[in-house]
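Hi, here's the filled form for the chain we discussed.

Project: internal
Contact: R.S.
Residues: 154
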Amino acid sequence: MQVEKDKVVAFHYKLTLDSGEIVDSSEDREPLNFLVGHGQIIPGLEKELIGMKVGEKKSVQVDSKDGYGERDEELLQIVDRDQIPENIELKEGLVLRANKDDGEIVEFTVQSFDEEKVVFDLNHPLAGETLNFDTEIINIRNATEEEISHGHVH
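And the returned structure, exactly as it came back:
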């Protein structure tokens, strides 16, 4: 069996940036499970895993356009400081969450601030980054009809 659409795949990974910084890893955790072809992992990584078999290892480099996208300077938002609740202690790099009108949760990062203004960055923190994955396929199985209809692993 190999990685292909509508299979449930379990794999271990280590994600690093070109700087060598380790961003995430499944080491000492359960492998990540996903349903192939249903948008559960970034497209560039999924494309590289297609065709792999259990036990196979692969190093993959994913360009930003196939990862979390390019940085978009239009996603910087300037807000008056008095719009920020007083109980929030601002610091550069602080990640905040808010609910959109439709209930979706959006994350944004404090890029900078002064006495009058706060600049929020709504780009994904890894936008614009080349992503380097070391992967190993642990298990592959057929997805159930329910998993396919729901678009995720149960």
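Let me know if anything looks off before we file it.
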